[in-house]
Design goal:
Length: 94
């Protein structure tokens, strides 16, 4: 099952119980993460602890990717774009 299908099914089933569904641009790549926003994800995650070598070996990370957030891109998003902390407190709005 594809990442986007899992996100869509999760949104349909868990919508009233889990408010935020995250797509990972680190493990899935920037484009799939953007597409996932149209399938029900409303959060893009990019922090990895110790998994960068694994993601890089699978071809998900290029040498140019860093652990910082990707530049904001509105494609696929119908809501506001913001940088947040782990507790979903807004740190910066774009």
């Amino acid at each position: 099952m594809s990442t986007c299908a899992r996100i869509a099914i999760s949104r349909l089933i868990l919508n009233n119980h889990i408010p935020n569904i995250q797509a990972s641009w680190v493990t899935q790549g920037h484009k799939v993460a953007q597409i996932a926003l149209t399938f029900g994800a409303n959060d893009l995650g990019g922090t990895m602890l110790g998994g960068e070598r694994c993601a890089r070996s699978r071809g998900c990370l290029s040498e140019d990717d860093t652990r910082s957030d990707p530049p904001p891109d509105r494609e696929g998003s119908d809501g506001p774009l913001a940088k947040r902390d782990t507790l979903y407190n807004i740190l910066e709005e774009y």
